[in-house]
Write a structure and sequence with these properties.
The protein has 249 residues and is an alpha/beta fold. The chain has helices spanning 19-28, 42-52, 78-83, 94-99, 104-116, 129-133, 137-148, 176-194, 196-201, 212-219, 236-248, and strands spanning 5-9, 35-39, 58-61, 88-91, 120-125, 158-162, 203-207, 226-229. The protein binds phosphoenolpyruvate.
Length: 249
């Protein structure tokens, strides 16, 4: 069975005061029955990693550069994230693809760099609203998988997150049938590319307006092994019910 994962993406939110939310979450679920991850802004990563070090909740970055070091002002390497305590990194999030023009090829290079640095690469794919309306959802995601995922992975080094762009931060959620259709396709794609044994073990996350109120039904969809959560991961009181729903799934 794939590892179940509840991953929080704080995006560009949070200064020192936000550490209290992570402290509250750690106190509320000292022994979660699933993997729990928080990806804070880079400025908080080291302190958050120290704060959570004694417990099971892990930390991650939200992006990394494809190179190990060099003249790349403002960027952070995968090795630096690992040095700051991260165990994972989100790559190819739709906001990075939109705000920074990240291509599938760049996401693949970053993913390879992340894995080489010992991080779990959480690679995001997902269609825009226009692409869904045009009936292109599956072909868009297939192209993203083909272009963004490294050739050499294991279920311990790769997580794939399906995040329809139109569902992120909007309160709009696909139907369960729509989530099922995409996750079934992604699972088949991973089995074809990496072999059935490896493909079946890779954790697949759904992301896009997951809340405590809708988490249980989403986690009941076949091949949904957890969630990538934005807004509802910022407060312990909002993230906790999602973790609990995943534990119960
Ligand atoms: C995300 O940023 O990956 C995300 C899914 O955001 P939200 O949960 O706020 O829709």
């Amino acid at each position: 069975m794939p590892r179940k994962l509840a991953a929080g993406n704080w995006k560009m939110n949070g200064t020192t005061g936000a550490l209290a939310e992570a402290r509250a979450l750690a106190a509320a679920c000292p022994e979660p029955g699933v993997s729990v991850l928080i990806c804070p802004p880079a400025t908080l990563l080291s302190r958050l990693s120290d704060l959570l070090a004694a417990g099971p909740i892990t930390t991650g970055g939200q992006d990394c550069h494809g190179a190990t070091s060099g003249a790349h002002t403002g960027d952070i390497s995968a090795e630096m994230l690992a040095d700051a305590g991260a165990g994972s990194v989100i790559l190819g999030h739709s906001e990075r693809r939109a705000d920074h023009g990240e291509t599938n090829g760049e996401v693949r290079i970053k993913s390879e760099a992340a894995i080489a640095a010992g991080l779990v690469a959480i690679v995001c794919v997902g269609e825009t609203g226009a692409e869904r309306d045009a009936g292109d959802t599956l072909s868009v995601i297939e192209a993203q998988l083909s272009g963004s995922l490294p050739d050499t992975i294991t279920p311990a080094t790769l997580v794939v997150a399906y995040e329809p762009v139109w569902a992120i931060g909007t309160g709009r959620v696909p139907t369960l049938d729509q989530i099922d259709e995409v996750h079934t396709m992604i699972r088949a794609n991973l089995r074809a590319r990496y072999g059935a044994e490896t493909g079946d073990e890779i954790t697949l996350l759904y992301g896009g307006s997951v809340k405590g109120a809708n988490a249980s039904e989403i986690f009941a969809v076949a091949d949904v092994n957890g969630a990538l959560v934005g807004g509802a991961s910022l407060k312990a009181d909002d993230f906790l019910p999602i973790i609990q729903a995943l534990e119960a799934s």
